[in-house]
Design brief:
The structure is a homodimer.
Chain A (H helix, E strand, L loop, with lengths): L4 E7 L3 H17 L4 E4 L4 H14 L4 E3 L4 H10 L3 E11 H8 L4 E7 L6 H5 L2 E4 L7 H12 L14 E3 L8 E3 L1
Parallel strand pairs in A: 1-2, 1-5, 2-3, 4-5, 4-6
Antiparallel strand pairs in A: 7-8
Helix pairs in contact in A: 1-2, 1-6
Chain lengths: ~180, ~180
Amino acid sequence: MPGKEVVILRIGHRPERDQRVTTHVGLTARALGAKGMYLAASDKGVVESIADVTGRWGGDFFCEHNVKWRAFIREWKALGGVVVHLTMYGLNLPDVIGDIRPHDRILVIVGAEKVPGEIYGLADYNVAVTGQPHSEISSLALFLDHLFSGTELAGDFPGAQIRIIPSRAGKRTEEM
Amino acid sequence: MPGKEVVILRIGHRPERDQRVTTHVGLTARALGAKGMYLAASDKGVVESIADVTGRWGGDFFCEHNVKWRAFIREWKALGGVVVHLTMYGLNLPDVIGDIRPHDRILVIVGAEKVPGEIYGLADYNVAVTGQPHSEISSLALFLDHLFSGTELAGDFPGAQIRIIPSRAGKRTEEM
């Protein structure tokens, strides 16, 4: 989204078990206005899947793996960025999104099942999307949608090879 | 949510490959105000996972498997319910949610990769959450949040054995 740099840091990813969910996290981030995803694990499969989508569907979303999360978070904060950690234990989204929205550089930490306790202290905001167990994918989607106030739903993806022509029924696409 | 009956129909589920994603679909539906999920496949694992969460975290969300989707959709419509199909090929969420919101009985079809073409014709609304590829989990989350206008984020789950006490940092829970 113009004027805001929102990036995802995915931690706790286990290469076999989490590949599909982490790919969904990355594609959700891309579709809903984030600039890219850093993966704190080694998984070329995720990087390639997301690069394939970006190549075909446009925009310049990036995905990097092998990121050292602790050093990365510290550097992000040192450069003036804010850190949001999505966790069911945090403060509820509607209660904190107004405080987060004015920030221009936002790192969103999306954990898999096991998140080091240190993350809670490093984050400027621990944010819950309801205090119920569901999915990091839906939490990220709602966080981004509330952050961008829905404007990201009409996002633009320049350089696409293909785009969908919205239809009442059926599938219509246009090759560019 | 009071006054509205929203249920999910999950189709195209393949028991080995999709168990985790379908469970995330069900838990997202539960956390965000739907009443239950019908699964058009045989998968006791999904049913049990969701029942475990409901037993511990409260509310009366249900999950049934072995549902015949064609007969189920026809019956839903015959009884006056409306059918929404989430698909990237549909009309964009912000353009149609205002037409859908007045309905009281809403069936939301959430497909996995392969969805029979017939579904597009059976649906009253084919709805896209952006025309970009991402995740059926994030699509469902945004659909429910826009349908309920965010009120579901403060949802109540009576009969819980455990609940989270929202915290700025750390994990606090309360056993009931």
